[in-house]
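Sample pair:
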Amino acid sequence: MRVAFTGFGEYAVDFFDGLVVDNSKSYWQDNLATYRADVRAPMEALLAELVPEFGPGFGEGKVFRPYRDVRFARDKSPYKTHCGAVIEQGRGGGAYYVEVGPAGLRAGGGCFHLAADQLARFRRAVDTDVHGAELVKILAALRRSGWEIAGDMLKTRPRGFAADHPRLDLLRHRSLYAFRVWEPDDTLHERACLDRVRAAWRQVRRFNEWARDHVGASEQARR
């Protein structure tokens, strides 16, 4: 039986505030019940209610594991200081993302990571007057609606493109996504939080559909 989303728990933000200060196994174990009740279970319920609308064409939703991959990281802190969830067909080809953490609620969409084959398709699409101009309009509309556009970028122009290319800034991107943040407020703990995320994902839908249609999932094996 599916449980309806009623908001994140009262101590969701407090849990992560504490984890930022004490990112240890002892803190995690001492506060695991709070994480499960106030963070994980509400995130799973939120995602379950959003999948019927946003899943078709993108895939199933998943809540990310709370553990950091520290194999090659200088920071060996074992736990993520936020809880994220996503609906995507494959990393890079468009994603509906939501996160709760110390900063409050974050919603996002786009190409959070581009493998080599995806990056090649992204640049081919941006290079064309039709698809590239369409992306420019999509991003401009998101900015006007309060979204921030971000992503990893080359410091110089990518090889094979003219220095005066009209969309050179977009071509320099190695990842490209949009996000917006709501600071912790009463809505975070109410069912209205679902409406906030749903409305945000509807705004970012055109961007995700562009990414799905022109970038798609990577055909390379993930490392």
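The CA atoms of residues 108 and 179 lie 4 Å apart.
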